[in-house]
Amino acid sequence: MGHPAAVQELKARLAAARSVAVLTGAGISADSGVPTFRGADGLWRTYRAEDLATPEAFARDPRLVWEWYNWRRELIVTRSPNAAHYALVDLERRVERFWLITQNVDGLHPAAGSQKLSEIHGNIWKVRCSQCGHVGTNRAVPIPIPPRCPTCNGLLRPHIVWFGESLDPVDLERSFSAVRSCEVLLIVGTSGIVHPAASFASLAKEAGAFVAEVNLDPTPNTQVVDVAIQGRAKDIVPALL
Ligand code: OAD
Question: Do 117 and 93 contact (CB within 8 A), yes or no?
């Protein structure tokens, strides 16, 4: 499991830090049985996420995009947080200043109990009206297609940040400020190619943080970080505490 010396060093850094930021991606939920986006199991029918998670795809064929989200809802509703999600709740309670930034929309971090959290790509259990902008929680599985806004009857869309769309400025500011001011940045289970999260490792390094990566495979972040631990999130992250 990972390199023992690297695990020990990161463990000591985390224990000593008063300020920790964590960035997670689909890899942390892979151990809960949620397919990642870029792995072999990430495909739905013959589509790639990049072709469905866009405003253009939704404008062209809202039914297709909702069918994809229904497939993901059906899958995620049966999944639970794993040891890595729970370990991060533990870490949040131990560290004076803590912020968790996740690119995941599956809601497994809040389900585990994380509170100091930005879901920068949104949440699959929230919907937004494409006409009046109303945001609400909707846990229907499957959601009847086409879903309609309870207030204005407009077409509802997933409350998710799609490719080509901007992140919420409050989430963004909070995340950048956590990354720039942390003593330790821990990056778990992300391929490190989707911005802005892809830039967090170098930003934190430039600001003087100790940066660590936990991933099954090497990523573009591996070259940037102080320690890279290869292994499964559910094995490595709990061992860091
Ligand atoms: P990816 O699917 O691109 O990458 C998942 C990463 O997790 C890969 O680097 C894997 O090596 C790693 N991995 C897989 N299983 C693991 C395990 N058990 N333990 C540790 N690591 C593991 O997912 P993201 O980087 O999260 O956007 O993708 C970023 C964004 O692109 C997503 O948020 C999504 C997607 O399109 C939206 O939905 C808007």
Answer: no
